Amino acid sequence: MRGGKSVKKYVCDVCGYVYEPYEGDPNNGIAPGTAFEDIPEDWTCPLCGVGKENFSPES
């Protein structure tokens, strides 16, 4: 962990997209270094469009 924030990757349960905190999602306003927990609730998967609730921590 860096700065007390989780650096876990999260995987979309629908399409398999992996959210990588170090990369963020700059094309959708999420800066590199943003923990998944800090992404706004209205953010959606950049590949298939489902919401955060459809993501699971990578095991």
SSE topology sketch:
Blueprint: E1 10-12, E2 18-19, E3 55-57
Antiparallel strand pairs: 1-2, 1-3
The strand line-up of the biggest sheet is: 2-1-3
> What order do the SSEs take from the amino end to the carboxyl end, as H and E?
EEE
The average pLDDT value, as a whole number, equals 92
Give the number of DSSP strands: 3
List low-pLDDT spans: none
In percent terms, what proportion of residues is strand? 5-15%
How does the major sheet shape up? 3 strands, antiparallel
Tell me the number of helical segments per DSSP (H or I, 4 or more residues long). Answer: 0
Shape: globular
Helix coverage percent of residues? under 10%
Q: What is the gyration radius calculated from CA atoms? A: 10 Å
Structural class: mainly beta
- Distance between the ends: 16 Å
List keywords for this structure.
59 residues, 3 strands
